[in-house]
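Q: Hi! First time asking for a complex rather than a single chain. Here are the components, and I think there are two in total. Is that enough to go on?
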Amino acid sequence: MSNGIAARADLHEHVHHPALQHQFSSMEQQQETATLGMWVFLVTEIMFFGGLFMAYLVYRVWYPEAWAEGSVELDVVLGGLNTVVLIGSSLTMALAVRSAQVGAPRATVGWLGITMALGATFLVVKGFEYAHKFQAHHVPGPDFVFEGPHAKQVEIFLSLYFAMTGLHALHMVIGIGLLSVITWMAHRRRFTPEWYSPVEMSGLYWHFVDIVWIFLFPLLYLVDRAHHFV
Amino acid sequence: MRPTYSIMSGHIAPARSYVLIFALLMVFTAITVAVAFTNLGAFNFPVAISIAIVKATLVILFFMHVKYSSHLTKLIIGSGVFFLLVMFSLTMTDYLSRGWQTRRATEASGIRHQGSGLSQGSGGGHR
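A: Yes, that's all I need. Here is the structure of the assembled complex.
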């Protein structure tokens, strides 16, 4: 594709940036189109997670006691640690985009590396939490055991916990895969201050996944904790 | 010869502004945890959600550069949030009001409502 553009460039009156595709009139327009397209995708993601948040809300209104009982079973320390790790990874992602903007490929690679490491840390902590849930038989299904007056309803809470955090973790895995490609491209000096759209777009995706967790943490780990100990 | 292409006009924020946003996000995280262990009665949930919305807004505006994005991009994001709220509010007007209908019918007929579990409304849920 880029060969075609390069070949076509000499037919034009002035020289185009090799990354400018012929359907766009300027790099600026191309960038804006990419941003808009990425956000249209993220809006579909909002609705995708939105359905799960809707289910959460309906069941929470139905079973507030079970929600409190289920929530205190989750580890606030690990959840809080993961919140710090993930927001930290958003910071390093923003700095990676900034490095690409100012044309510092080494710094871009470095920040992307830290971002992926923090993402992996998040998944490892999540893995420990899941493992503990399996050991405690708190995984919904035939082996589910829960001591308490609302065991069946707590099972629904934990089903939503696994569905929401599982889908979120899947997005993290995809995000790390995405960033490893971007890191490789940055390492090969593929980005310039004129063209760094892939860094910016994967950044938008990464921040979106961070935002989902910003809502999941209070809704799953912190809900009704104060009332439960009254 | 220097090419005459126009460069990408992305907004380049100073690195310290990102660190400042990160610090703010950490402060809000600490507040939301502290609030979770403080009994505010019915206000715990709205406060937790409000803090999460503030945090998400900070990420969207600054980390995702939406503050400097085009009006069209902002419109797309706004419409996404709008339809999410439409889904939440229309669904909850149904679920939260089911109990009212049941109570009125029960009072009018003087017999205990034997309806499906869905019509028990928002009180304590079904046990």
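A: The two ends of chain A are 65 Å apart (CA to CA). Let me know if you'd like any chain examined more closely.
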